[in-house]
Write a structure and sequence with these properties.
Order of helices and strands: EEHHHEEH
Strand order of the largest sheet: 1-2
Number of helices: 4
Helix content: 55-70%
Oligomer: single chain
Number of strands: 4
Number of domains: 1
């Protein structure tokens, strides 16, 4: 078989067509496999990261709500809010790359438990017991999220 491109003539045999077809198919297969394993690896890394962040948030939130009032309470609630935002961003990325579905209701409950502010005499009501409703809700939500995000 002869192919002419802009005045140049190329001779291609049937065996060359078969060889190039196999090479192109092999390249496509290797790219597809690499993409699949990259996504799976990324997802597993993100799941490890989200579990670490959930554990840190749980510890810091319970410590915050069981401690006494101080002058940095508003800044500490801001830090906890940013931690929740970081976890929700990771969860959305995991969902986007084929991981488990984003558990919106759990995140809503967690956000309410961690950031809901109650005031008494113009002071943030804190110093809750470790087994208070708020702290138990934080523990429950974090446990549900850890169960949801397993490698």
């Amino acid at each position: 078989m002869e192919i002419a491109i802009e005045g140049y003539k190329f001779e291609i045999s049937f065996t060359q067509i078969i060889t190039w077809s196999i090479a192109i198919i092999a390249i496509i297969c290797s790219i597809t496999c690499a993409f699949y394993f990259f996504r799976k690896s990324s997802r597993n890394t993100w799941i490890g990261n989200i579990n670490d962040e959930i554990e840190n948030l749980e510890n810091e939130a319970i410590l915050f709500w069981t401690s006494k009032n101080n002058s940095n309470d508003i800044q500490d609630i801001g830090k906890l809010t940013r931690k929740i935002k970081k976890i929700t961003t990771l969860a959305r990325d995991i969902n986007k790359y084929g991981g488990c579905k984003y558990p919106e209701s759990i995140f809503i409950r967690l956000r309410r438990a961690v950031t809901h502010e109650e005031y008494k005499n113009n002071r943030l009501k804190k110093s809750e017991s470790p087994d208070s409703y708020r702290n138990m809700e934080i523990k429950t939500c974090c446990e549900e999220l850890r169960d949801k995000y397993k490698r």
